[in-house]
Design a protein that fits this description.
The chain has 570 residues and is of the alpha/beta class. It is built from 14 helices and 20 strands. The protein has helices at residues 52-65, 100-112, 131-139, 205-220, 248-258, 272-283, 300-303, 318-321, 327-343, 360-363, 387-401, 432-436, 481-484, 491-505, and strands spanning 32-36, 69-72, 76-77, 89-93, 116-121, 151-152, 175-179, 185-190, 225-228, 290-293, 314-315, 349-351, 407-411, 512-514, 522-527, 530-535, 541-542, 547-551, 559-560, 564-569. The protein has an eight-stranded parallel β-sheet. α1 runs parallel beside α2 and α4 runs parallel beside α6. The longest helix is centred in the middle third of the chain and has 17 residues, at 327-343. The protein is globular. The N and C termini lie far apart (57 Å). Bound molecules: alpha-D-glucopyranose. The site of alpha-D-glucopyranose has 9 residues, from loops. Alpha-D-glucopyranose (GLC) binds at residues 82, 85, 122, 193, 229-230, 294, 355-356.
Length: 570
């Protein structure tokens, strides 16, 4: 690893001084950030797994889409037991994705196109193949190397039971027992996720120093910020107390990750000191770099703690993502979001899809729209989404989201209206949650299938060889990028227009005023000079006077039909 410890590094940072804003303009307050899932975006090598060179080749399409930044899910060295969220070297690129030179080329091309680049930082755990963990295993109990992680003796007569009753988010116990050098059973180590993802001990200053150096490595390399994985984890309550037993798998997997349970590993007060430390590191650098928290905590007022002025800049709004398509609930979560985040001086963010949840074009076609983080849907799930309804609502939901003040996150493929892939053979499924629950939970593979670029090309243009790490269904042809580009009414053109108008009207830095007089099933507000109406009910809503500049689907003789959003300028 090479660690440059100052902001005046001689590495070619390629940092975009000319990008949009002057220093201090806080571009992220209104930015639309597009999540690239590197395995599944574009594959230049043709081996069936996407790569950095593939991304670079396709970046122009994102500039044309009109987003401000890209966030790349992990492309670091990793045995890929959790699709790269198991990092074995934080300061290098995994050969399946390319090299550091490929990263530099991507960064330069992105900056040339006016796109900022955010990378994923995974500080709660590393891979069990990371040299730090390998050294800890070799060094044995009581060593400083073991203190980097959370090793504990077992309970029971001869330590045969885990140290406490915590569950892994992916199913099964959160502890794995080690074997001593002499072959006898040894201590246990904690992993809130897969057994190949040992949790760091963040009470150890050594861990703090490693992560400062990792931040600096990428800041020196010109990244514009970090999305911080499991930012509500890291610190565990002293003594690692048992949790109150809950009804096993279901609530653990779905709600446990959302942090609505009071558990001794999520949202501990002590975690905030870490982000204050990182805030100070980023502040040493010019160019307005950002930290975005993946903190699955509720209520929103709690999530807002991650974005107090001396901590992170943004936090994903998972409460918004998890809100059903019901107008009263959406009005409440929007109000609550704006209050909670602006209350601490941060922008609200908005997000509908990512690599951990059922794609919103399918989720919104499910009743009761609940297939949440990790759980996924598959061939024998009790609920099958109504595809047409889901897409119709997804378009309306996106048009609503992009009219809100603050910053928005898009997940690759949603601009194509891509559905979740449900009919995926078990043999292909790679998500550890599928394997750790013996298939009881389908997991997240269905939202991670490589995206289609061209309807008739091999692998729908994902590469030129036709290989694909997860099989793409035939129906992807109709969603292909080139099949939608320039086609009036396509989902891609809806996104493009919405993003262009959002920028033109300054929605991101705008303010929301609710409009009264519409029914319970209607969301109606003004952002600046634009009236935004989303009709979620059966009764048609009259289009207000003015020019309709955006409609998520065709209007019906002057009225807004069910599950349709319009933007109207007076
Ligand atoms: C986050 C990531 C998810 C990953 C988990 C463990 O929730 O988004 O994909 O599996 O952390 O790193």
């Amino acid at each position: 690893m090479s660690h440059e410890n100052t902001a005046t590094s001689t590495l070619p940072t390629g940092h975009p001084r000319e990008l949009a804003s002057a220093p201090g303009s806080e571009w992220w307050r209104s930015a639309v950030i597009y999540q690239i899932y590197p395995r599944s975006f574009a594959d230049a090598s043709g081996d069936g797994i996407g790569d950095l060179a593939g991304i670079t080749q396709r970046l122009e399409s994102l500039a044309n889409l009109g987003v401000d930044a890209v966030w790349l899910s992990p492309f670091f060295r990793s045995p890929q037991k959790d699709a790269g969220y198991d990092v074995s070297d934080y300061c290098n690129v995994d050969p399946i994705f390319g090299t550091l030179d490929d990263f530099d080329a991507l960064r330069d091309r992105a900056h040339e196109l006016g796109l900022r680049v955010i990378v994923d930082l995974v500080p709660n755990h590393c891979s069990s193949e990371h040299e730090w963990f390998q050294e800890a295993m070799a060094a044995g109990p009581g060593s400083p190397e073991r203190d980097r992680f959370i090793f504990r003796p077992g309970t029971g007569e001869s330590g045969e039971l885990p140290p406490n009753n915590w569950h892994s988010m992916f199913g099964g116990p959160a502890w794995t027992r080690t074997t001593n050098a002499d072959g006898t059973p040894g201590d246990w180590y904690l992993h809130l996720f897969d057994s190949t993802q040992p949790d760091f001990d963040w009470t150890n200053p050594w861990v703090w120093e490693q992560f400062r150096q990792i931040l600096r490595f990428w800041l020196d390399r010109g990244v514009d910020g970090f999305r911080v994985d499991v930012a509500h984890g890291l610190m565990k309550a002293e003594g690692l107390p048992d949790i109150d037993e809950v009804d096993e798998a279901d609530s653990e997997l779905a709600e446990g990750l959302m942090g609505s349970l009071e558990v001794p590993y999520w949202g501990q007060e002590t975690v905030h000191a870490v982000y204050r430390d990182w805030h100070a590191v980023l502040a040493e650098y010019e160019g307005d770099r950002v930290l975005c928290a993946e903190a699955w905590v509720e209520p929103l007022a709690k999530a807002a703690l991650w974005v107090r002025p001396d901590e992170m800049h943004q936090a994903f709004n998972f409460s918004y993502l998890a809100t059903p398509w019901l107008a009263p609930r959406l009005r409440d979560v929007i109000t609550e979001s704006l209050e909670a985040f602006t209350g601490v001086g941060a922008p609200s963010t908005w997000v509908l899809s990512n690599h951990d949840v059922v794609r919103h074009a399918s989720r919104l076609g499910l009743a009761p729209y609940s297939a949440g983080p990790v759980s996924g849907i598959g061939p024998s799930s009790p609920e099958k989404p109504d595809a047409a309804l889901g897409l119709h609502r997804a378009r309306a939901a996106t048009a609503l989201m992009l009219a809100l003040p603050g910053s928005a996150y898009l997940y690759q493929g949603e601009e194509l209206g891509l559905p979740e892939v449900i009919e995926l053979d078990d043999d292909y499924r790679q998500d550890p949650s599928f394997h750790r629950t013996a298939g009881e939970v389908y997991g997240r593979d269905g939202c991670r299938v490589p995206i289609p670029w061209e309807p008739d090309a091999p692998a729908f243009g994902f590469n030129t060889t036709g290989e694909s790490w997860l099989p793409q269904p035939e129906t992807f042809a109709q969603f292909a990028h080139s099949a939608q580009a320039g086609v009036e009414g396509s989902t891609l053109e809806l996104y493009r227009r919405a993003l262009a108008l959002r920028a033109e009207y300054g929605f991101g830095l705008g303010a929301l005023t609710w409009l009264e007089g519409y029914g319970d099933d209607v969301i109606a507000f003004r952002n600046g000079d634009v009236t935004v109406i989303a009709n979620l009910g059966d009764a048609p809503v009259e289009v207000p006077a003015g020019e309709v500049v955006l409609a998520s689907d065709p209007l019906d003789a002057g009225s807004i039909p069910r599950d349709t959003t319009v933007w109207v300028t007076a």
